[in-house]
Amino acid sequence: MAVTRTFSIIKPDATRRNLTGAITKMLEEAGLRVVASKRIHMTKDQAEGFYAVHKERPFFNDLVAFMTSGPVVVQALEGEDAVKRNRDVMGATNPADAADGTIRKTFAESIEANSVHGSDSDENAKIEIDFFFKPEEIVG
Ligand code: IDP
Ligand code: MG
After folding, report:
1. Is residue 77 a contact partner of residue 8, using CB atoms and an 8 Å limit?
2. H-run or E-run covering 130
3. How many CB atoms lie within 10 A of CB 7?
4. DSSP string of 33-84?
5. What is the pLDDT of residue 36?
6. Does residue 85 sit in helix, strand or coil?
7. Of 28, 2, 25, the residue nearest 14 (C-alpha)
8. What average pLDDT score do residues 9-34 get?
């Protein structure tokens, strides 16, 4: 299995509850390595750009408001089959459907405030990493 990268966000509901370390520990224990990390407060423009793929969805405005409601931690993660590995440890979008032991089952508050983002493909992982990090900010 090839070593690849994915992009993760620890969302405002999680930073508010001081869960950055607990979530990062679960990512690391799942075989992912943090190769870039920064805590930022997303602007409305950044959140709208990042979630542009969802702009026709009914929850888009609420999602942008939520993602700009407090600090987030954006991370690039590296590991074998990183996109799938991260999606597996994240759990389903709706925490009510997420498997035991996943981040969302353990920590998410709701389908919106679901604690973490993770890329859904290698192609989107590259786009999302490039959206938030300069090449020199990623140290593998
Ligand atoms: P994902 O984060 O599991 O990939 P997506 O369908 O890509 O899920 O949705 C992006 C984000 O939008 C979700 O993580 C969640 O925060 C929010 N979201 C998704 N579906 C709903 C919904 O039905 N109501 C409110 N927010 C939603
Ligand atoms: Mg998604």
Report:
1. yes
2. helix 122-132
3. 26
4. EEEEEEEE---HHHHHHHTGGGTTSTTHHHHHHHHTSS-EEEEEEEEETHHH
5. 99
6. helix
7. 25
8. 99
Residue 117 is among the residues annotated as catalytic for this protein: yes
pLDDT in tens, 55-96: 999 999 999 999 999 999 999 999 999 999 999 999 999 999
Ligand nearest the Cα of residue 60 is 1
Q: Beginning with the edge strand found earlier in the chain, give each strand of the sheet holding 116-118 in spatial order.
A: 33-40, 72-80, 3-10, 116-118
Q: Is the dihedral of CA 118, 25, 75, 56 positive or negative?
A: positive
Written as six digits, the tokens of 55 are 């702009």
Per-chain residues with Cβ under 5 A from ion ligand 2 = 120
- In the reported structure, the alpha carbon of residue 136 is separated from the centroid of ligand 1 by a whole-number distance in angstroms of 30
- Please say whether the beta carbons of 1 and 80 come within 8 A: yes
Q: What angle do CA 126, 127, 128 make, to 5 degrees?
A: 90
User: How far, in Å, CA of 138 to CA of 7, rounded?
Assistant: 12
State the helix-helix crossing angle for 82-90 and 122-132, rounded to 10 degrees.
80
